[in-house]
C-alpha cells in the first residue's frame, strides 16, 4: 500500500478507535453507527458528523478497491489534512487558553454606562466583563445596553450617561450569559457549552478563561461568538 493511503488509514483508524471507546461499543458496530451514537452526547462529534461520514466513504474505497500494483485512487492532500486535523481535534483537542489568551478589557459596577459604552465602541466589543475587585458580577452586552436604552426612552426619563453599570445590568434578559473555563478547558468543551445554552434558549455570550475556571479570578482570555471561525478551523472545518 502506498505511503499516503497508509497514512490516511492510520489517522482514520485512530478516530474509529476513539469513537468506539467513547461509547464503549463492540467490534460489530459500524463506523456510521459509532458516529450516530456518539453524536447524542458529544457536541464536537455531532458538529463533525458529516465530515466523518465523508471520510468513511473514502476509507471504504481505499480498503475495498485498493490494487497493490495500480491503486484506483489515493488520498488528496486536502483529505489527508482533514482526517489528521479531525483526529487531533478529537484525541488531542486544543486548549482554549492557547488560542484565546489575551488582555481582557473589563469594567466595574460603579463605572458609568457612558464610559463602559465608550470602551465597547473603541475596541469594537459586543460584551464587557464586569468585575467588582477580583469578583465577576456580570457581563455587560450590547443587547443589555439596548434594553436599558429602550426602558429609559419608554419611561420618558431620558438618557443618563452617568447611570452606573450596576443599574444597567438590571436590564439583562438572562442571568447567566457567560461560562468560566480553566486553562485546561478545550475547544471541545467550548462547543458543548455553546450547545447547552442554545438548547436552553439562553445564548452564551462569552467564555471567560481564568487559571482555575472561577469567577473569583481575573480573566486571562475571552472567547466570544466572533471566535467561532477560529474554533472551527482548529477542528478541521
How would you summarize this macromolecular structure in one to three sentences?
Helices cover 52% and strands 11% of the residues. With 237 residues, the chain is mainly alpha-helical. It is elongated, with a radius of gyration of 23 Å.
Strand content: 5-15%
Helix percent band: 40-55%
Strand sequence of the main sheet, in spatial order? 3-4-5
Main sheet makeup:
3 strands, mixed
User: How would you state the average pLDDT, rounded?
Assistant: 87
Q: What is the first-to-last residue Cα distance?
A: 28 Å
Total count of helical runs of at least 4 residues: 10
What pattern of helices and strands is seen along the backbone?
A: HHHHHHEEHHEHEEH
Uncertain residue ranges: none
Structural class label: mainly alpha
- Taking all Cα atoms into account, the compactness measure Rg is 23 Å
Q: List how many beta strands DSSP finds.
A: 5
Could you say which overall geometry the principal axes of the C-alpha atoms support? elongated
Which short descriptors sum up this protein?
single chain; 237 residues; mainly alpha; two-stranded antiparallel ribbon
Give the helix/strand layout:
Blueprint: H1 3-23, H2 31-41, H3 43-64, H4 77-91, H5 96-100, H6 113-123, E1 127-132, E2 135-141, H7 142-155, H8 165-169, E3 178-181, H9 187-199, E4 206-209, E5 221-224, H10 228-234
Helix pairs in contact: 1-2, 1-3, 1-4, 2-3, 3-4
